[in-house]
Design a protein that fits this description.
Blueprint: H1 4-13, E1 19-22, H2 30-40, E2 45-49, H3 64-74, E3 84-90, E4 93-100, E5 109-110, E6 113-118, E7 121-125, H4 128-137, H5 153-156, H6 159-168, H7 177-183, H8 195-201, E8 214-220, E9 226-233, H9 237-251, E10 254-257, E11 265-268, H10 272-285, E12 295-299, E13 303-309, H11 314-317, H12 329-337, H13 347-357, E14 364-366, E15 370-376, H14 382-400, H15 406-417, H16 423-430, H17 434-446, E16 450-453, E17 460-463
Helix pairs in contact: 9-10, 10-12, 10-13, 14-15, 16-17
Length: 465
């Protein structure tokens, strides 16, 4: 039985993979039992009755007939599942707790259906075959739930990552780290941290999980012959997400819209939101058992492809874009807590809508073996690219007239044709020393003609017009 302090801590941490709030017992008690069945098919969890969606305790009373109805409904779960039901007093208000264990005889079935936990939500599967297929696909145990004996979260965790998680998850600063880790179910039953905890909060998890990285490659043209840039990002999964987005921003074309005295609006050639969705999906749903491949972000003249090991799970393939299922429920729930996942199964429709709104073709999805999302770029061939470059050059020449020397003009011309180069790359192209190149770059920046975008180590320079 949980004590008052632990219950309050669960409430402060909010709903998630292992915690569900209910203001009251629903009129159909089976709705509670569906949630209980989902918890049993996952890592267990707590249903708190008498708490609203905002974490406010509203007080509730469960009379004997209601408690009997709940226990009777739970008894319909097969195989048999024992759950504790008890009340806790919080600030003179009563909260009822249904304590659900992680079932030892998965899958559990209720009324002929199977329910599983997906982030902070429960999903219904209609047949035992679907569930068995799902567990087979995951080798009967989630990779992110495996004990990680080398990782001590209190000694090996990245402190900045913990701070970022607290901030993005809007957690109370008074809640101790230890309590948050326990509430997030980062440990196995014997107190060992899970793989998911190491990958999400570890300083350099790629030292032990060399395949858990994100590789970003820029190609010249439309095939994989000439590589212009190749970066591999490690670190925590959230850090990989940030680095991958920064890399994309450093390579994509962007225009600026200025109206009145307000801040300028960035208009990206492909909406950044689709990449954010695709990268979070890749980090959450990839098959980490597959150690021969990493997440790939590949940019060509005509498209951007984001791929991750592991095709669609059979359950999802039957209703792609409308049903969600993850191989890594712990990782998915942590991204959910950081509000990087809005609603379960909504990522694909949001990407499609964002591309339509930008007057771009909807993304293509290839789901066999590797899951790949393909986003078409506006500039689809070299002829069009040269035309655009010629226009941009004319505009640049009109702006600067005779106020720049030939070396500065060479840098401008270079960045028109190859945006996103760093200072070292520019110096090699114009055949000048790095120090001299940096002096020219500073002059162009002061004149408002170029700017640096992206992370210090991976970003580059772009024309401003």
């Amino acid at each position: 039985m949980l004590n008052t302090e632990t219950i309050q801590s669960l409430i402060d941490s909010g709903e998630g993979y292992n915690v569900e709030f209910k203001v009251r017992v629903p009129s159909k008690v089976r709705e509670l039992t569906e949630e209980i069945c989902a918890f049993a098919n996952a890592d267990g969890g707590y249903l708190l009755i008498g708490v609203d969606d905002n974490g406010q305790v509203v007080d509730t009373n469960l009379e004997n007939d209601k408690r009997s109805a709940i226990q009777g409904s739970i008894s319909e779960i097969s195989p048999a599942l024992h759950c504790e039901l008890y009340s806790v007093n919080l600030v003179n208000k009563t909260v009822w707790v249904i304590d659900v264990p992680s079932g030892k005889d998965k899958p559990y079935i209720f009324s002929g259906s199977i329910y599983v936990r997906e982030g902070a939500n429960s999903q219904k599967l209609h047949t035992a075959e679907e569930m068995r297929s799902f567990f087979q696909e995951c080798n009967k145990i989630f990779f992110d739930h495996i004990p990680c004996h080398w990782f001590n979260i209190y000694m090996d965790a990245d402190e900045q990552m913990i701070k970022d998680f607290r901030t993005e998850a809007k957690l109370s600063p008074s809640t101790p780290d230890k309590q948050i880790f326990e509430n997030l179910e980062l440990f196995t039953e014997n107190g060992t941290a899970k793989n998911g905890a190491a990958m999400f909060f570890g300083k350099q998890p790629e030292r032990k999980f060399p395949h858990a990285t994100t590789r970003c490659v820029l190609f010249k043209g439309t095939n994989k012959v000439y590589i212009i840039d190749d970066k591999t990002f490690g670190g925590s999964l959230y850090q990989q997400y940030l680095q991958a987005i920064a890399w994309l921003e450093s390579k994509l074309q962007v225009a600026y819209k200025i109206e009145g005295t307000g801040p300028r609006e960035e208009i990206w050639e492909i909406p950044l939101t689709v990449f954010k969705e695709a990268i979070i999906n890749a980090l959450s749903h990839r098959d980490y058992y597959e150690q021969g491949a990493s997440i790939m972000i590949e940019m060509f003249d005509d498209r951007v492809e984001i791929s991750n090991p592991g095709g669609l799970l059979p359950v999802v393939a039957k209703d792609f874009g409308h049903k969600s299922m993850t191989r890594n429920p712990l990782i998915f729930s942590l991204f959910t807590r950081m509000h990087l996942v809005e609603r379960v199964a909504s990522g694909i429709p949001r990407m499609q809508e964002a591309m339509r709104e930008a007057n771009l073709p909807e993304p293509e999805f290839h789901t066999e073996g590797m899951f790949t999302a393909v986003f078409k770029r506006q500039i689809s061939n070299s002829a069009n690219y040269d035309t655009v470059n010629g226009i941009v050059n004319d505009i640049v020449n009109d702006i600067v007239n005779d106020t720049i020397n030939e070396n500065e003009q060479a840098i401008l011309n270079l960045l028109v044709t190859t945006p996103g180069l760093n200072a070292s790359e520019i110096s090699k192209h114009i055949n000048k020393s790095l120090r001299t190149t940096m002096r020219y770059i500073k002059i162009l920046q002061d004149k408002g003609l170029i700017e640096f975008k992206g992370a210090p180590k991976t970003g580059g320079y772009y024309i401003l017009i």
